Amino acid sequence: MSDMTSFLNNIKFDDRGLVPVIAVDDDTDQVLMMAYTNEEALQRTLSSGHATYWSRSRGKLWCKGEESGNIQKITDILLDCDGDTLIYRVKPMGIGAACHTGHRSCFYRHWDGSEWTDNGDPVMFDPKEVYKFTGDNK
Amino acid sequence: MSDMTSFLNNIKFDDRGLVPVIAVDDDTDQVLMMAYTNEEALQRTLSSGHATYWSRSRGKLWCKGEESGNIQKITDILLDCDGDTLIYRVKPMGIGAACHTGHRSCFYRHWDGSEWTDNGDPVMFDPKEVYKFTGDNK
Prior knowledge:
The structure is a homodimer.
Chain A: H1 3-9, E1 19-25, E2 31-37, H2 39-48, E3 52-55, E4 60-63, E5 72-79, E6 86-92, E7 109-111, E8 116-118, H3 127-130
Parallel strand pairs in A: 1-6
Antiparallel strand pairs in A: 1-2, 3-4, 5-6, 7-8
């Protein structure tokens, strides 16, 4: 059995062939984003060492940062107990923002008891400057 | 508009009425588990202060730790940029294990390049001792 077969056999893909993946900053342990991946994106992730997802909205492989420069270098891949969720531990390259809004993390809002407010996660870039030419922002 | 309406209106539930939620240890930032929640489970979470999920396998509300004692006290709730994923930041009570296998985190396996192996996440209890009477372990 090849390594790739062993890798994939332990992952429970849903009926769309997808599995959720949580990207975690390897230096800070901050949760950066949650997205989906599939067999092809996982193969690309392993071969390139760069976090690759499946974009449900665009229906294609999505190497995070291929347009913005904010590539996520893979340092580890974790699998949960029932095999239906992954973690990519990553080192963010470039400006180091995971979110298309320019925030370091997509989780930049929290519930303050009466409304969803900004939780202070820093804004690292202006998305209007970075995504001038493409819709490759999520 | 009530606070609860404001809370729920910003969350994009999927076609099953569910939204994925990542439980993160508030002290260590470790990702403990990923599960799903719905409107009712979120209302219970806010009113009780204890992380509550929707168990897809059992088809009912699931207050984490109601059988094992490993309740997760909520310290913060985060929402991502497109509103379709939540984070519960929690303080694990009791023995402090999130996983039904007894591990602190459900993400106790990692890919070592040729196989999925234990990543050293500690085993905090023996699941055969804790879940004697019920199937309430996931």
